[in-house]
């Protein structure tokens, strides 16, 4: 299984799959391998059938959140239905690849039902909460103005967190009021930005954007050290400002 995971990763990268997609696939498949080994079950893909996959589903329903995550601390709650669904869909894609490569002739997922995630309504920010969130940010500081501009851009465009931190200076056209976004599945699209966001980005570029740590770094939003802002950093920024604004009843996150 380990050698096949490596081969699957190489093929998927050549097919243009994103690093995030491949990281999830590697994590899910490694978790499957470890689970089967711990239970004394076969790890040869020609011997893994519906029974082994159902054992793995039961395992996922019993483990704690982030128990297998390489960076995040384990939490005292189970995996969410969405997380379990993501793991299993990633593994099913691997088995579909095995079929296409003619490594196996039968797909055990044909006889295994993947549990559907529960449909939950995620609470969103109210207008008053958004005003409070933007108000607590000190725009006199370079990092504060950057944070304010990032949040304003998210609200104006509806970009994903990964799309926002992936914006480049070159792809930001303030004259025409558009940004070119490299979205999910490496698909590019043009997104309009409003006049207020145009002014904010212009001011950020003129007065607040630090020198990139690498001269060739094209990323629009940078840390004070000149490195690209990451999704994790963006999440921490919004969570921190949310605490200052005393926002309750909603998750302070770029995904909300």
From TrEMBL:
Signal peptide: none annotated. Pfam families: Phage_integrase. GO terms for biological process: DNA integration; DNA recombination. InterPro entries: DNA_brk_join_enz, Integrase-like_cat_sf, Integrase_catalytic, Integrase_recombinase_N, Tyrosine_recombinase_XerCD. The keyword Iron does not apply. The keyword DNA-binding applies. Residues 120-256 form the Tyr recombinase domain. One of its GO terms (molecular function) is DNA binding. Keywords: DNA recombination, DNA-binding. This is Tyr recombinase domain-containing protein.
